[in-house]
Amino acid sequence: MRKFLHDAVDLALFRFKPLDHYVYEWWVPVLCVALQGTVLSAFATDLNTGVIQRTVFLIASNLVETLLASLFFGWWVRLDKRCTQKGTLFPLMALLQSAIVLLAVATVLPPGLNALAMLAICLYALVVQVRAISHSTGIGTGHTVAGMLAFLPAQLLLMLLSTQIATGLGWVDKSMQLQDDKADVTTPATKENTTKPTKSGEGES
Length: 205
Fold this sequence. Notes:
Layout: H1 2-12, H2 27-43, H3 51-76, H4 90-96, H5 99-106, H6 111-137, H7 141-168, H8 175-195
Helix pairs in contact: 2-3, 2-4, 2-5, 3-4, 3-7, 5-6, 6-7
């Protein structure tokens, strides 16, 4: 576990090593992913359910995303002939997923700083991921960026699926959304009625 934490700090400081360096006991990256989901659960106030259910749900979602990313990039990097490393990318991807903890913490900032902080964290995490995968596997940066773009639809699909599951379980409060939708529908009609000009002589006997 000490080596895992040390490697996490090295990645954050842009110090990268070959892929075969990121080898740990199987439970270490799994525990890291579980801790990430637990932190996310503490800030996921939009899920109206118990702490245990919310934590398990977010741990499972985070684990599935990390596994999919590991499988996809494990296949993707081998498409580049410059790839010289063999082995699973799961430990490395678990380390790289740690940036989502910073995104969760950024949600408690004031609205003005919130957006700027999240944008900065996303850009920083993207740069770290691209450089870490490129340096650890020996592939080109352009090939890694192309892989990020290719994996984006899967990420969006997984996010949509998670939202649908949470909604189906009744964990998402629809009342505010319904009120907003109703307001969007009624407001144009109301404005039209209030701004409709009256014809000259209308109502005169």
